[in-house]
């Protein structure tokens, strides 16, 4: 007898937020097919990561372009057909779009949290609303994201006769960089790109850099050679990232990552999920996978910079 449970429908969603005259507002969508009010969300496409689906579905349903902020409580519930549905949600900062409606939505409405709570059709959606209100009242709704990227799969050292910094990505490495990694970075929309000068790192960020029209700034201290000659330079580069406090993607090598994550572990915010603290602690002992992204939601800057959450996106 099979022990498999019911099929799981995976989806991503966003709570678009804005502040008007000091008051918090959130955007709900109305679906005429169900005559309900809920958050923009939709099912993952084949091979898609949750953040990518959340941003794509928000665009398709509302015409709004969003930058993902803090993750919100995951929603799990049973569908009428017997399947389980799991929806991962994020705060969404609106960065563009005209709000033209598509697909299943006929109205988007910005409301105060109080009015939104009354308008929502499902009790389960109020959990994400309560989390947004808590973040706002704690002054933690404005966040930035630090995306730590290990370069994608490169040609093995034994198969390469040139200088190691010139060792290129493999075909699968280039494809991951051009699609899955670029899409994931687009969901978080980093404003700065930092990298080791090694070709395998700069080429990992290159597809996103081209689409976002951003330059990749290289730092010798983020290379394996630079780290070996002066390990302390890595902490200096990280200090500058934290001082600026703007969304940043940094691509580097496996040997640097335990030290890098160690700095982030020192900055975890009180109340951070224990499972996510364990993720960081684990990554100080074993390095990230090639082509993996560690997305850290940050609050504050400089000495006050803190990690609110940390999520791994591993190659599949």
What would you say this structure looks like, in words?
The chain has helices at residues 50-62, 113-119, 126-137, 171-188, 199-212, 224-229, 232-244, 257-265, 274-283, and strands spanning 8-20, 23-31, 36-38, 41-43, 65-78, 84-96, 107-111, 144-150, 192-195, 216-218, 248-252, 293-299, 306-313. The protein is of the alpha/beta class and 316 residues long. Strands 1, 2, 3, 4, 5, 6 and 7 form a 7-stranded mixed sheet that branches. It folds into 2 domains: 8-137, Nucleoside Triphosphate Pyrophosphohydrolase (Alpha-Beta Complex); 144-313, Phosphoglycerate mutase-like (Rossmann fold), CATH 3.40.50.1240. Helix 4 (171-188) packs across helix 5 (199-212) and helix 8 packs antiparallel against helix 9 (274-283).
């Amino acid at each position: 007898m099979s022990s498999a449970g019911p099929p799981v429908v995976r989806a991503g969603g966003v709570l678009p937020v804005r502040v008007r005259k000091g008051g918090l507002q959130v955007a709900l969508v109305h679906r005429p097919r169900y005559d309900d009010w809920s958050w923009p969300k939709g099912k993952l496409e084949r091979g898609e990561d949750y953040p990518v689906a959340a941003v794509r579905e928000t665009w398709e349903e509302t015409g709004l372009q969003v930058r993902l902020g803090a993750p919100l409580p995951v929603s799990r519930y049973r569908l009428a057909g017997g399947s389980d549905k799991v929806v991962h949600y994020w705060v969404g900062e609106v960065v563009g779009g005209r709000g033209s409606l598509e697909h299943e939505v006929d109205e988007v409405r910005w409301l105060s949290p109080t009015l939104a709570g009354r308008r929502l059709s499902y009790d389960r959606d109020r959990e994400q609303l309560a989390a947004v209100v808590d973040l706002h009242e704690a002054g933690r709704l404005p966040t930035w994201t630090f995306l730590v990227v290990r370069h994608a799969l490169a040609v093995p050292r034994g198969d390469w006769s040139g200088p190691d910094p010139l060792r290129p990505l493999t075909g699968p490495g280039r494809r991951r960089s051009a699609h899955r990694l670029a899409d994931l970075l687009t969901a978080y929309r980093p404003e700065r790109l930092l990298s080791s000068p090694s070709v395998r790192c700069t080429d990992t960020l290159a597809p996103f850099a081209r689409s976002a029209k951003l330059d990749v700034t290289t730092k010798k201290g983020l290379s394996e050679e630079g780290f070996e000659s002066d390990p302390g330079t890595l902490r200096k580069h990280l200090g500058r990232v934290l001082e600026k406090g703007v969304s940043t993607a940094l691509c580097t090598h496996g040997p640097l990552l335990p030290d890098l994550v160690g700095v982030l572990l020192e900055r975890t915010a009180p109340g951070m999920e224990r499972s996510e603290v364990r993720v960081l602690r684990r990554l100080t002992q074993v390095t990230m996978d090639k082509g993996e992204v560690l997305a850290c939601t940050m609050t504050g800057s400089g000495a006050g910079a803190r990690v609110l959450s940390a999520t791994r996106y591993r190659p599949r």
